[in-house]
């Protein structure tokens, strides 16, 4: 039911004009985020994860980008029908985003406090004094030590982990209904990564905010996600609950990703599993299934056309293996 969904994306198509023609960065993607839940979007670099999030935020540069079709329903309203002024009121207030590299997202010439205050004064209509108090409170909430001192410091004076905490404080200061995290721990070392993830989980539980977690790291997905969407070459290849994905990955690509994870109880002499080949370029897609050139189970049918998403064992999978055609070919 729509009342349970904070966000519903239907048949989204985000294309880019290039010298070689159209690049279909997001090609007919549909999914939803339930209220108070976390959707994990996973896949290798170049699969369309970040472009999906930028499309939702209305931040795709046009041209060369173009939203060629679909709907993005947030609280029942189509964001693609809103103008820039309307989107500006939604961004930061109702939908907030944490980017993967805080140093490029924070303005180096303003203190972190000024940047948090700007959002509060714009969206919450606070006075400078109110915004300062709320900003320091937010820095305390994200566990930054000496928040009053840090409030008046510039981004370059903070460590990477602290800058990412500032970004989380900025994203949550206006109590958004949806928080989009685009690889929020990529630029951080492992111990800080764990702290940031714990913080996002804790704040989500406190505030009831829905979360879209975009990552290439299945360890992150295991820790935070309720539902998982696996993307490959601009398309959804598998959609399931987090438990289903980890218990039994069904798409060959998901299976490959799962088996690339090092196992703590594994044999030291065992070679790590790898998925051979590379993600295809958007302007040079294979004719059939995009994963076909890298798939050990591919058959002739996989080279002929792209499979549809089919329902298999209570989840959606884009693979011929789960169709009648495949079974008939075997028989």
Number of strands: 12
Distance between the terminal alpha carbons, to the nearest Å?
A: 40 Å
- Rg (CA only): 21 Å
Low-confidence regions:
none
Our count of helices gives 13
Helix content: 25-40%
Mean pLDDT: 88
Q: How would you classify the helix and strand content by structural class?
A: alpha/beta
The proportion of strand residues reads: 15-25%
Characterize the main sheet.
8 strands, mixed
| Sheet with the most strands: spatial strand order | 6-7-8-3-9-10-12-11
Give the SSE order as H and E letters: EEEHEEHEHHHHHEHEHEEHHHEEH
Shape: globular
SSE topology:
Elements (H helix, E strand, L loop, with lengths): L4 E14 L2 E14 L3 E5 L6 H9 L7 E10 L2 E2 L5 H7 L4 E4 L3 H4 L6 H12 L4 H14 L5 H5 L8 H13 L5 E5 L7 H18 L2 E6 L2 H7 L2 E6 L2 E7 H6 L4 H8 L40 H5 L5 E3 L2 E3 L6 H7 L1
Parallel strand pairs: 3-8, 3-9, 6-7, 7-8
Antiparallel strand pairs: 1-2, 1-4, 4-5, 9-10, 10-12, 11-12
How would you explain this protein's 3D organization?
The chain has 331 residues and is an alpha/beta fold. The chain contains 13 helices and 12 strands. The chain has helices at 49-57, 84-90, 102-105, 112-123, 128-141, 147-151, 160-172, 190-207, 218-224, 242-247, 252-259, 300-304, 324-330; strands at 5-18, 21-34, 38-42, 65-74, 77-78, 95-98, 178-182, 210-215, 227-232, 235-241, 310-312, 315-317. The strands form 2 sheets. An 8-stranded mixed sheet has the order 6-7-8-3-9-10-12-11, sandwiched between helices. Strands 2-1-4-5 form a 4-stranded antiparallel sheet. The relative contact order is 0.13. The model has no long low-confidence stretch (mean pLDDT 88).
């Amino acid at each position: 039911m729509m009342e349970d969904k904070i966000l519903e994306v239907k048949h989204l198509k985000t294309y880019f004009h290039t010298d070689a023609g159209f690049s279909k960065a997001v090609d007919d993607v549909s999914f939803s985020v339930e209220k108070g839940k976390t959707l994990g979007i996973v896949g290798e670099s170049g699969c369309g994860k970040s472009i999906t999030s930028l499309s939702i935020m209305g931040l795709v540069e046009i041209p060369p980008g173009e939203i060629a079709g679909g709907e993005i329903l947030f609280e029942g309203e189509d964001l693609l029908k809103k103008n820039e002024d309307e989107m500006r009121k939604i961004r930061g207030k109702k939908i907030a985003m944490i980017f993967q590299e805080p140093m490029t997202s924070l303005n180096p010439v303003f203190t972190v406090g000024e940047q948090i205050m700007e959002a509060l004064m714009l969206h919450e209509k606070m006075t400078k004094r109110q915004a300062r108090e709320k900003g320091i409170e937010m820095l305390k909430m994200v566990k930054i030590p000496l928040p009053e001192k840090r409030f008046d410091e510039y981004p370059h004076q903070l460590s990477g982990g602290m800058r990412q905490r500032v970004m989380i404080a900025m994203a949550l200061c206006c109590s958004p209904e949806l928080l989009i995290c685009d690889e929020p721990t990529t630029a951080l070392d492992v111990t800080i990564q764990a702290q940031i993830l714990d913080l996002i989980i804790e704040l989500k539980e406190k505030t009831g905010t829905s979360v879209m977690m975009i990552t290439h790291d299945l360890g992150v997905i295991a820790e935070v996600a309720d539902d998982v969407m696996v993307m490959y070459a601009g398309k959804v290849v598998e959609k399931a609950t987090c438990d289903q994905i980890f218990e039994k990955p069904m798409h060959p690509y998901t299976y490959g990703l799962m088996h690339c994870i090092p196992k703590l109880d594994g044999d030291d002499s065992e070679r790590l599993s790898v998925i051979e080949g590379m993600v295809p370029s958007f302007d040079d897609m294979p004719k059939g299934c995009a994963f076909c050139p890298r798939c050990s189970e591919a058959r002739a049918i996989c080279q002929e056309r792209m499979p549809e998403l089919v329902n298999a064992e209570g989840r959606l999978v884009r693979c011929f293996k789960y169709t009648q055609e495949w079974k008939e070919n075997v028989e």
